[in-house]
Amino acid sequence: MLWPMIAVALGFLGIAVLGVLAVRVFAEVRRLARQIGVASERIQRAAEDLERAATPLASSLDLTKK
After folding, report:
1. Does residue 34 belong to any structural domain of this protein?
2. What does the CA dihedral 30, 35, 37, 43 come to, rounded to 10 degrees?
C-alpha cells in the first residue's frame, strides 16, 4: 500500500508543479502582450510623425516639371 500512495503523491506534486509553471507562463505572456501593444503604438506615432514631416517636402517637389 505504500508504493501506490507514493505514486499518487508524486503524481499530485507533478501536476502542482505544472500548474505553477503554467501560471508563470501566462503572466509572462500577458506582460509581453502589453509590451508589444506599447511598442506598436510608438511605431504608429513615429510613422505618423514621419508622414507629417515628409508631406511638406513632397509638396515642395514638383515632379511634373522636367
Report:
1. yes
2. -170
Nearest to 41 by CA among 49, 29, 31: 49
Residue 47 lies in a domain: yes
Compute the half-sphere exposure of residue 44: CA atoms within 13 Å on the CB side of its CA. Answer: 6
pLDDT tens for 35-54 read 999 999 999 999 999 999 98
CA distance 15 to 41: 39
- End-to-end Cα distance, the chain: 96
Query: In the structure grid, which three cell numbers stand for residue 31, read together?
Result: 506582460
Its pTM stands at 0.65
The residue to which cell 506582460 is assigned? 31
The pLDDT value recorded for residue 63 is 64
